Each structure stands twice: as structure tokens, then as C-alpha cells.
Amino acid sequence: TADEETDAARFPFTVASIKSEDDEEKPLFSQLHQKQIEDRDASTSSLADQTTAETETDVGDDDDDDDKTFACELCSNRFSRKTTLNNHMRVHTGQKPFACELCGKRYSQKTNLNRHMRVHKGQKPFACELCGKRYGQKTHLNRHMRVHTGQKPFACELCGKKYSLKTTLNTHMRVHTGEKPFACELCGKKFRLKSSLNRHMRVHSGQKPFACELCVKRFSQKTHLITHMRVHTGEKPFACELCGNRFSEKGSLNKHMSVHTGQKHFACELCGRKFCRKSNLNRHMRVHTGQKPFACELCGKRFSHQTTLNNHMRVRSGQKPFACELCGKRFSEKINLNHHMRVHTGEKPFACELCGKRFSKKANLNRHMELYGRRFSQQKTLNNHLSIY
Question: Does the structure show a pLDDT above 80 at 3?
Fold first, then answer.
């Protein structure tokens, strides 16, 4: 009816099943809107009843004010019929004479009860002419139409960002106000969104509802599952603009960027050495603590790094997974293969500072320095001896 449509246009908060009917909204907006409605269900239903009653009594009579002879003594609104005034008075008295026989919910106006009954009956009389999706209330159809029109009538006065839903704007405002109304009862941590609190609760419950179909690994967050799937697909959507290296996670790209910037934010408090990654600092600390958490299951020998244990296991098993592409020689460690490649390339990166002789291995340079240094020491001793005698 005209009353219902006018009523719906002015008061978008309703009691009906908004969660299922707003699924077509953009994902983030949909979630925010649904949570907002769920959290305010009790308070907004009362407000909707009162405001709807006021609207219905204000609209639908003759437009001529001279015909409105029945005045409300509390708010000075005027009506052309006594029955309309009586209906309007429920706004002030809070009276709700119309009850749902199925769930007991009460309403101040018969039209509101009729709309509510569609929830139980599954009636969706309002259809979108563009995509055919149906809704139980006109207001829900109006909101849905913004998906097609791109209309965003609700603007943030602080940053200008626009939204298609008023509830989404209200949620956005918490970014500026810092309001976090949803608190964890177990640890006290607060969140802006109810959905964020729900996700956080899995930390305490240990719940992992998202399972990988390929390896049955489970995750507490959908985003973690999506990231994990790249292990199977090999997808690396994050590319370094400087060198072209690609990564499966944004965090890995951020860490990689320190290679180009040279930034080392993580410093050892004991020796001052700096690292670009926290994980590297943690590994370095084992040098000071002597911690060796990685043990060989065959001989019991312990190591401070997992990679060192892996190398050790290859020595025991005789495994040599690193092969030279030029001569076929195989090695148990990648570093040994790198050293071997200098035989083919002729590269000698290690130079003696005293005589300039170059070596392909650091160990060879060290041996050379011992010999050269001993000769130098002996010659100096001889010169000292000759100067005396």
C-alpha cells in the first residue's frame, strides 16, 4: 500500500530476516550490515514499531490541514479521523495490541504485524525487475537496488567515503571515533565489529571450521585457508616491483622488501647485531643461549637450526639432492654445490689482503693466511735479530 511504501522509505530499520535478504550486497558491506542489525535487534524493533505508528498516522489523510480536526495533545500532530489519532497515541503510550501468534512478538500497528508474518510464511512479494531476486519487505528491495544503480547515499562527514547502507556508515564511523563496542569476555580484547569478535573467539575455543579439501589441514580463519591453498596451486599474486620476485603472501613480500631497502629493524640486545626479520633474530639468539632445539632421531646430536639438522640427516642417509648441471656431481648441501660451481666458472671471490692471491674457497684463503702470516712473522724476527747484531 502507499502507507507501507512511505513508511518503508522513512524507516529502514525492520525486524524481518535481514540477514538472508541482504546477501546480494557487497560482501564487506553485507557482513557489517547483518551484524549491525543482529546486535541491535531488540532495540531497533521497538523503535521501528513506534516510528512506523507515527508515520502511518501522519500519512494517508487529506492533505488539507483544515480537514485535520483531531489534534494530539502531546505532540500537536493533527489528524482527519479519530481512529487515526487513536493509532497515533500508541507512539506515546507504547501500547502494542497486535501480537504474532507464532513467536509472540508484539506491534503497535496491524500493518507492521502483517509485514512480520511474511517472515514465518516465507512470503516475498517484492521482486527486483533487473535480476528477479525477491524480498519480504519493500525496504529490502530498495536497499538491493543500490547494487544495480551503484547509489551510495550515505557519506562520512569526516573523510567523504560513501556507503550504500546507513548501518555500514555507522560502523565506518568507529574508525574515526575509535569505538570498539564488542569485548571478549575471556581476555577483554575489544573489536569494532561483532564478526571480528566472533573470529577472535576461535582463539580461545580452538575451533577451526575451515578445512583444506586437498590435505585436510584446518584453519580458524577463512583468509588463512585461502592463503594456504596457494601452497597447492602455486599461486604467487604478490610481486616485487624492483626485482620481480613473487610471493604467495603479502607479509612475505613486505619482508622481502628489506633486502632492497637494507632496513634492519630487529637488533640483538646482547651483541648489537641487526636483522631484517624477527625470525632471523630469534635464530641468532640461540648463539647466545646455546639452545639447540633440533635433535637427530638417529644419533641424538642436537642443532640450533632446522637447516643444520636437515644437512646432518643427508650425511647420515647418503642423500645428495643437489646436482651440478655441468658435470653431474651431486652434493648433500646447496652451499657445497655453490662452491663446486666455481670450478667451472673459475670464480675466486676470496682475496689475500697481503699479496692479492685469490681463492675459490674461504677455507683455502684461511690456510694461505696462516702460512703467509707465519713466514712474515719469521722474517720480522730475523730482521730484528740482524739489527741487533
Answer: no
